[in-house]
Amino acid sequence: MNAATLFGLCGAALAGLGLYGLVTNPEPLRKILAFNLLGSGVFLVFGVVARRAAASGLGGDPVPQAMVITAIVVAFAATAMAIALLLRLLQETGRPTLDADNPAGTDRGNS
Amino acid sequence: MTSFLFGAAGFVLTTVALGLVAVLRRPAEVDHMMAAQLLGTGGVAILVLLAAATDESPLVDVALLLALFAAFAAVAFVRSASGQESEVSRTTSGG
Amino acid sequence: MIISSFFDIVLVVLILGIGASTIAAREAFAAIICFVVYGLLLAIAWVRLSAADVALTEAAIGGGMTGMLMLGAVARLRSAEGNDIRTSLPTRLAAGAMCALISAGLATAILVPPEVIPTLAPMVMENLAQSGLGNPVAGVLFVYRALDTLLEKVVLILALLGVWSLAPDGAWGGIPGLRVYTQPSRTLTFLAQLLPPVGIVVAVYMCWVGANEPGGAFQGGTILAAMWLLVMIAGLKRVPAIGQPWLRLLLVVGPVIFLAIGLAGMVLAGAFLAYPSGYAKPLIVTVEFALTLSIGVALGLLAAGPPEQAQRQ
Amino acid sequence: MNLAFDILTVSAVSAGALFFLAGTVGLLRFPDPLTRLHALTKVDNLGVGLVVLGLLPRANGLSGALKLVSIWLLVQLSGAIVTQLIAGAVRQRGPHG
């Protein structure tokens, strides 16, 4: 097994781990964190695709690499947006959660 | 020489890994804050060793960035952990 | 070779361990620290995949900026009581099984590579000489997929508009609610005076070498954003109101110059975002410098969050 | 000449790696956060410093060597200040905060 395959398997495991955290963790902030983990796992798989396609004296195929760079920046923008939404939710409802049927969630006194 | 440098990088990575486990397992948040600093210095050493081992000088730039952002992250930790107020509450309460 | 695979195995185990503790950590603060450490480790993994450009981006954004953003949020969420509802055990088991299945699927895709591995590297290298650039990744970003890069800048600005539009009505155009130190701390002030000059030099360097070696507008812009945030957090500079014209000008200068050169390409070179032959490199370097500024401002404002306070008259 | 440089590289890098080990042992064994911080700063100064010293003969010309030294200076300066900040947080919140 070469290094690229090893990191590819690591990326696959990270994607699963991130998805698990996204599904099971009730706190929105932790969900955002898990989503970032999922994303970085997928990027890593992409990086392995790039590494395997090494040719012409390059360490990897530059096209997937450039796409991953773009993706990292876009993921950051999406994370910033998600966190702003979460903080606004906290401001409006006083609770950082998405549960609708929680009895404590009916007061909107803070808004 | 290449394998010596790789070996040294692996050794440093192992010690950093053990240090991270030690730091993150403790309950106190001040201990957690040391993690970024530990990885900042360890990561710099690992990257300059890898740069020398693989003869890829751009890796030294990665080391430079790692050092810069590890310090930045540590500042963010300390800011978040110390109960400072935000810009808004400062101006509404103090002036 | 055996020694380098020892290194890789330790790195992978460490990444997986830190990744798992990001998910499993009880406190949100500990989880975010794990995530920052994870981002810095991932930068080393990208180095091992011969992708120094990606390693630079990951160290800057995954390690520094995302952590900064999340830590700003966790400090506010801490005051609100969290809910103790845990997902029930059967649900977690089912989710774990499904996620393991997905991981296994991805792993199979990696372990069974295609007969002929598709690669665009020879095509990129063949045409790279015409553009005068030495860094193939920069070539892809600014020559072959320039439209993607341009649209990505638009996405950054759209995300920023989205963040801003979450402001309460009264605060529109006001000052972002970035958490700053209230009591001046001498140590932090010293760091905020020492690090930004170094950071700005590194950012210019990144941007400058980006044409020939790993680096470029993204990395340089992220460093600028981080240094700007550091100065604001330390209280050396006030957080500017988002209504300021100079701020908005800086925000759009990069995409506008990029777009203008792209439109000029329609007249001079016969296609949108094409460069007239012989002028490709100077034009790309111009675009990169303008983009570095715009990306820096956009990322810094994204991390600063929506405005929370009306602008003082 | 080459042999002398190689000996310098091996001995300095090994010594630097030893300081990393010492720092980790300190993090594992020292009883309170302030002493653990102390262990951490030794790694910044001497660990990275010795590794950089060992790699200087293999650096990419004079500019490469200067870059390595400036990285060490950056790590040392920022490390010292960040450690001070964390120590401030320890004082504010107590060793178990």
Walk me through the structure.
- The complex is a heterotetramer of chains A (111), B (95), C (313) and D (97).
- Chain A is an all-alpha fold and 111 residues long.
- Helices cover 71% and strands 0% of the residues of chain A.
- The longest helix of chain A is centred in the last third of the chain and has 32 residues, at 62-93.
- Mean pLDDT of chain A is 83; it is low at 103-111.
- Chain A has one domain: Helix Hairpins (Orthogonal Bundle).
- In chain A, helix 1 (3-24) packs antiparallel against helix 2 (28-52) and helix 2 (28-52) packs antiparallel against helix 3 (62-93).
- Chain B has one domain (2-82).
- Chain B contains 4 helices and no strands.
- The radius of gyration of chain B is 18 Å and the shape is flat.
- Chain C is mainly α and 313 residues long.
- Chain C has 2 domains: 1-77; 119-309, no CATH class.
- In chain C, strands 1-2 form a two-stranded antiparallel sheet.
- In chain D, helix 1 (2-29) packs antiparallel against helix 2 (33-55) and helix 2 (33-55) runs antiparallel to helix 3 (61-93).
- The mean pLDDT of chain D is 87.
- The radius of gyration of chain D is 16 Å and the shape is elongated.
- By secondary structure, chain D is mainly alpha-helical.
- At the A-C interface, helix 1, helix 2 and helix 3 of A face helix 1, helix 2, helix 3, helix 4 and helix 5 of C.
Secondary structure: elements and pairs:
The complex is a heterotetramer of chains A (111), B (95), C (313) and D (97).
Chain B: H1 2-25, H2 29-54, H3 58-81, H4 87-93
Helix pairs in contact in B: 1-2, 2-3
Chain C: H1 2-24, H2 28-48, H3 52-77, H4 89-111, H5 121-131, H6 136-144, H7 146-164, E1 175-176, H8 186-209, H9 217-233, H10 245-268, H11 280-304, E2 307-309
Antiparallel strand pairs in C: 1-2
Helix pairs in contact in C: 1-2, 2-3, 3-9, 3-11, 5-6, 6-7, 7-10, 7-11, 8-9, 8-11, 9-11, 10-11
Chain D: H1 2-29, H2 33-55, H3 61-93
Helix pairs in contact in D: 1-2, 2-3
Question: Which terms would index this structure?
Answer:
heterotetramer, A: 111 residues, mainly alpha, Helix Hairpins, 3 helices, elongated, disordered C terminus, B: 95 residues, 4 helices
The gist of it:
With 111 residues, chain A is mainly α. Chain A contains three helices and no strands. The model of chain A is unreliable at 103-111 (pLDDT under 50).
Class based on secondary structure composition and strand pairing of chain C: mainly alpha
Major pleated sheet of chain B: none
Give the number of DSSP strands of chain B.
0
Q: What is the helix/strand order of chain B? A: HHHH
Strand content bin of chain C: under 5%
- Stretches of chain C where pLDDT falls below 50 for ≥5 residues? none
The residue fraction in helices of chain B comes out at over 70%
In spatial order, strands of the major sheet of chain C run: 1-2
Beta strand count of chain C: 2
Give the N-terminus to C-terminus distance of chain C in angstroms.
66 Å
Mean pLDDT score of chain B, rounded?
81
Q: What's the multimeric state?
A: heterotetramer
Number of helices of chain B: 4
The most extensive contact between chains is: A-C, 80 and 95 residues
- In sequence order, what are the helices and strands of chain C, one letter per element? HHHHHHHEHHHHE
Helix-strand category of chain B: mainly alpha
Strand content of chain B: under 5%
